[in-house]
Fold:
Amino acid sequence: MAVARLASLSFFFPAYNEQDSVEAVVREGLDVLPRFADDLEVIVVDDGSTDRTGAIADRLASEDTRVRVVHHRPNRGYGAAVRSGLLAARKEYVFFTDGDRQFHVADIELLVPALDDADVVIGYREKRADPPRRIFIAWVYNSLIRLLFAAPFRDVDCAFKLYRRGVFERVPLERAGSNGAFFSPEHLLVLRAAGVRIAQVSVPHYPRTVGEEKGATIGVVARAMRDLVRLRLRLWLLPRRERSALDHQQRP
Structure:
Protein backbone atom coordinates (compact mmCIF):
# COMPACT_ATOMS: atom_id res chain seq x y z
CA MET A 1 0.00 0.00 0.00
CA ALA A 2 1.29 3.45 -0.92
CA VAL A 3 1.85 5.71 2.09
CA ALA A 4 1.65 9.48 2.34
CA ARG A 5 5.00 11.28 2.18
CA LEU A 6 6.07 13.94 4.66
CA ALA A 7 8.34 16.80 3.64
CA SER A 8 10.73 16.01 6.49
CA LEU A 9 10.52 14.13 9.77
CA SER A 10 12.17 14.20 13.19
CA PHE A 11 11.76 11.01 15.22
CA PHE A 12 12.82 11.02 18.85
CA PHE A 13 12.38 8.90 21.92
CA PRO A 14 13.30 9.41 25.58
CA ALA A 15 15.43 6.66 27.08
CA TYR A 16 16.29 6.08 30.71
CA ASN A 17 18.33 2.92 31.35
CA GLU A 18 17.19 1.29 28.11
CA GLN A 19 20.53 -0.23 27.07
CA ASP A 20 18.80 -3.41 25.89
CA SER A 21 16.46 -1.62 23.49
CA VAL A 22 17.98 1.73 22.47
CA GLU A 23 19.88 0.36 19.46
CA ALA A 24 16.88 -1.62 18.23
CA VAL A 25 14.63 1.46 18.36
CA VAL A 26 17.17 3.60 16.48
CA ARG A 27 17.66 0.97 13.80
CA GLU A 28 13.91 0.45 13.51
CA GLY A 29 13.48 4.17 12.90
CA LEU A 30 16.23 4.27 10.30
CA ASP A 31 14.83 1.21 8.52
CA VAL A 32 11.12 2.12 8.57
CA LEU A 33 10.79 5.89 8.44
CA PRO A 34 12.35 6.49 4.99
CA ARG A 35 9.03 5.07 3.74
CA PHE A 36 7.45 8.28 5.01
CA ALA A 37 10.13 10.97 4.55
CA ASP A 38 13.40 11.24 2.66
CA ASP A 39 14.66 14.00 4.97
CA LEU A 40 14.91 12.22 8.32
CA GLU A 41 16.60 12.55 11.69
CA VAL A 42 16.50 10.24 14.72
CA ILE A 43 17.10 11.75 18.17
CA VAL A 44 17.79 9.80 21.34
CA VAL A 45 17.14 11.72 24.56
CA ASP A 46 19.32 9.98 27.15
CA ASP A 47 17.70 11.11 30.40
CA GLY A 48 20.60 10.62 32.78
CA SER A 49 20.89 6.88 32.26
CA THR A 50 23.22 5.04 34.63
CA ASP A 51 23.71 2.07 32.32
CA ARG A 52 25.19 1.99 28.78
CA THR A 53 22.23 3.72 27.07
CA GLY A 54 24.14 6.96 26.46
CA ALA A 55 27.29 5.24 25.20
CA ILE A 56 25.31 3.06 22.78
CA ALA A 57 23.41 6.10 21.48
CA ASP A 58 26.67 8.02 20.96
CA ARG A 59 28.13 5.11 18.99
CA LEU A 60 25.06 5.00 16.76
CA ALA A 61 25.34 8.75 16.17
CA SER A 62 29.00 8.35 15.17
CA GLU A 63 27.98 5.70 12.62
CA ASP A 64 25.09 7.59 10.97
CA THR A 65 24.80 11.35 10.55
CA ARG A 66 21.00 11.11 10.75
CA VAL A 67 21.28 10.14 14.43
CA ARG A 68 21.73 12.71 17.20
CA VAL A 69 21.85 12.36 20.97
CA VAL A 70 20.69 14.72 23.70
CA HIS A 71 22.16 13.92 27.12
CA HIS A 72 20.63 14.93 30.45
CA ARG A 73 22.93 14.93 33.45
CA PRO A 74 21.48 14.12 35.91
CA ASN A 75 18.09 12.54 35.22
CA ARG A 76 15.43 15.27 34.80
CA GLY A 77 12.25 13.23 34.46
CA TYR A 78 10.06 11.97 31.65
CA GLY A 79 8.41 15.29 30.84
CA ALA A 80 11.75 17.06 30.62
CA ALA A 81 13.02 14.36 28.26
CA VAL A 82 10.01 14.74 25.96
CA ARG A 83 10.38 18.53 26.07
CA SER A 84 14.07 18.23 25.11
CA GLY A 85 13.17 15.99 22.18
CA LEU A 86 10.55 18.42 20.91
CA LEU A 87 12.99 21.34 21.26
CA ALA A 88 15.79 19.43 19.51
CA ALA A 89 13.63 18.48 16.52
CA ARG A 90 14.52 20.38 13.33
CA LYS A 91 12.19 18.93 10.70
CA GLU A 92 8.70 19.93 9.57
CA TYR A 93 7.00 17.02 11.35
CA VAL A 94 7.90 15.56 14.75
CA PHE A 95 7.09 12.01 15.81
CA PHE A 96 7.87 10.42 19.13
CA THR A 97 7.40 7.22 21.03
CA ASP A 98 9.06 5.60 24.04
CA GLY A 99 12.27 3.57 24.09
CA ASP A 100 10.75 0.44 25.63
CA ARG A 101 9.50 -1.04 22.33
CA GLN A 102 5.86 -1.26 23.43
CA PHE A 103 5.01 0.56 20.20
CA HIS A 104 6.21 -0.25 16.69
CA VAL A 105 7.63 2.66 14.72
CA ALA A 106 5.97 1.37 11.52
CA ASP A 107 2.54 2.10 13.05
CA ILE A 108 3.15 5.77 12.29
CA GLU A 109 1.29 4.87 9.09
CA LEU A 110 -1.88 4.95 11.20
CA LEU A 111 -1.23 8.56 12.25
CA VAL A 112 -0.10 10.18 9.01
CA PRO A 113 -3.49 10.19 7.19
CA ALA A 114 -5.10 12.11 10.08
CA LEU A 115 -2.78 15.08 9.39
CA ASP A 116 -5.18 16.11 6.62
CA ASP A 117 -7.49 17.55 9.28
CA ALA A 118 -5.22 18.03 12.30
CA ASP A 119 -2.08 19.73 13.57
CA VAL A 120 -1.37 17.01 16.14
CA VAL A 121 -2.27 13.32 15.92
CA ILE A 122 -2.19 11.32 19.14
CA GLY A 123 -2.51 7.59 19.51
CA TYR A 124 -4.63 5.82 22.06
CA ARG A 125 -4.08 2.23 23.11
CA GLU A 126 -7.18 0.27 22.15
CA LYS A 127 -5.94 -2.73 24.15
CA ARG A 128 -3.23 -1.83 26.63
CA ALA A 129 -0.54 -4.51 27.13
CA ASP A 130 0.33 -3.60 30.72
CA PRO A 131 -0.16 -5.17 34.17
CA PRO A 132 -3.68 -4.73 35.67
CA ARG A 133 -2.44 -2.27 38.32
CA ARG A 134 -1.05 0.06 35.68
CA ILE A 135 -4.18 -0.21 33.54
CA PHE A 136 -6.33 0.72 36.56
CA ILE A 137 -4.15 3.72 37.43
CA ALA A 138 -4.35 4.92 33.82
CA TRP A 139 -8.15 4.54 33.81
CA VAL A 140 -8.49 6.64 36.99
CA TYR A 141 -6.05 9.25 35.67
CA ASN A 142 -7.74 9.64 32.29
CA SER A 143 -11.17 9.76 33.93
CA LEU A 144 -10.05 12.56 36.27
CA ILE A 145 -8.68 14.60 33.38
CA ARG A 146 -11.91 14.22 31.41
CA LEU A 147 -13.91 15.22 34.50
CA LEU A 148 -11.80 18.17 35.68
CA PHE A 149 -11.01 19.67 32.28
CA ALA A 150 -13.97 18.60 30.11
CA ALA A 151 -11.33 17.21 27.75
CA PRO A 152 -12.24 14.29 25.46
CA PHE A 153 -8.79 12.67 25.40
CA ARG A 154 -8.95 8.89 25.58
CA ASP A 155 -5.32 8.18 26.53
CA VAL A 156 -3.35 11.27 27.51
CA ASP A 157 -0.14 9.38 28.25
CA CYS A 158 0.02 7.31 25.09
CA ALA A 159 3.59 7.79 23.85
CA PHE A 160 2.78 7.72 20.16
CA LYS A 161 2.27 11.23 18.80
CA LEU A 162 2.87 13.13 15.56
CA TYR A 163 3.07 16.93 15.42
CA ARG A 164 3.34 19.63 12.84
CA ARG A 165 6.40 21.46 14.16
CA GLY A 166 4.71 24.80 13.52
CA VAL A 167 2.42 24.28 16.52
CA PHE A 168 5.37 24.98 18.83
CA GLU A 169 5.78 28.41 17.28
CA ARG A 170 2.08 29.15 17.89
CA VAL A 171 2.08 27.60 21.37
CA PRO A 172 5.53 27.69 23.03
CA LEU A 173 6.47 24.59 25.00
CA GLU A 174 7.08 26.75 28.08
CA ARG A 175 3.31 26.98 28.57
CA ALA A 176 3.41 23.40 29.85
CA GLY A 177 5.48 23.72 33.00
CA SER A 178 5.66 20.15 34.30
CA ASN A 179 8.85 18.13 33.87
CA GLY A 180 7.34 14.94 35.24
CA ALA A 181 4.70 12.47 34.12
CA PHE A 182 2.08 15.23 33.89
CA PHE A 183 3.86 16.93 30.97
CA SER A 184 2.00 14.97 28.28
CA PRO A 185 -1.57 15.69 29.49
CA GLU A 186 -0.70 19.28 30.42
CA HIS A 187 0.77 19.90 26.98
CA LEU A 188 -2.33 18.46 25.27
CA LEU A 189 -4.60 20.65 27.42
CA VAL A 190 -2.54 23.74 26.60
CA LEU A 191 -2.58 22.97 22.87
CA ARG A 192 -6.32 22.36 22.90
CA ALA A 193 -6.97 25.58 24.80
CA ALA A 194 -5.00 27.45 22.13
CA GLY A 195 -7.21 26.06 19.36
CA VAL A 196 -4.75 23.52 17.96
CA ARG A 197 -6.54 20.77 16.02
CA ILE A 198 -5.94 17.39 17.68
CA ALA A 199 -6.97 14.04 16.20
CA GLN A 200 -7.02 10.71 18.05
CA VAL A 201 -6.20 7.39 16.39
CA SER A 202 -6.25 3.85 17.76
CA VAL A 203 -2.80 2.18 17.78
CA PRO A 204 -1.53 -1.26 18.82
CA HIS A 205 0.32 -1.68 22.10
CA TYR A 206 2.75 -4.53 22.74
CA PRO A 207 4.07 -6.20 25.92
CA ARG A 208 7.42 -5.06 27.20
CA THR A 209 10.04 -7.73 26.46
CA VAL A 210 13.21 -6.12 27.88
CA GLY A 211 14.02 -3.72 30.69
CA GLU A 212 11.84 -2.70 33.61
CA GLU A 213 8.66 -0.65 33.90
CA LYS A 214 9.45 2.82 35.26
CA GLY A 215 6.38 5.00 34.88
CA ALA A 216 3.91 3.87 37.56
CA THR A 217 5.78 4.10 40.86
CA ILE A 218 3.94 5.62 43.81
CA GLY A 219 6.14 8.72 43.68
CA VAL A 220 5.59 9.29 39.95
CA VAL A 221 1.81 8.85 40.28
CA ALA A 222 1.66 11.15 43.32
CA ARG A 223 3.58 13.92 41.56
CA ALA A 224 1.40 13.61 38.46
CA MET A 225 -1.76 13.92 40.58
CA ARG A 226 -0.28 16.93 42.37
CA ASP A 227 0.50 18.66 39.08
CA LEU A 228 -2.98 17.85 37.76
CA VAL A 229 -4.62 19.53 40.76
CA ARG A 230 -2.27 22.51 40.53
CA LEU A 231 -3.17 23.08 36.88
CA ARG A 232 -6.88 22.87 37.60
CA LEU A 233 -6.54 25.36 40.48
CA ARG A 234 -4.43 27.66 38.34
CA LEU A 235 -7.11 27.73 35.68
CA TRP A 236 -9.82 28.33 38.26
CA LEU A 237 -7.85 31.27 39.68
CA LEU A 238 -7.39 33.02 36.35
CA PRO A 239 -9.20 36.36 35.97
CA ARG A 240 -12.86 35.69 35.15
CA ARG A 241 -12.71 36.90 31.55
CA GLU A 242 -9.60 34.86 30.72
CA ARG A 243 -10.98 31.78 32.49
CA SER A 244 -14.26 32.03 30.62
CA ALA A 245 -12.47 32.12 27.26
CA LEU A 246 -10.22 29.21 28.19
CA ASP A 247 -13.03 27.03 29.52
CA HIS A 248 -15.03 27.73 26.36
CA GLN A 249 -12.10 26.50 24.25
CA GLN A 250 -11.76 23.34 26.36
CA ARG A 251 -15.34 22.16 25.93
CA PRO A 252 -15.72 19.23 23.49
Observations:
- Residues 9-250 form a domain with the Spore Coat Polysaccharide Biosynthesis Protein SpsA; Chain A fold (CATH 3.90.550.10).
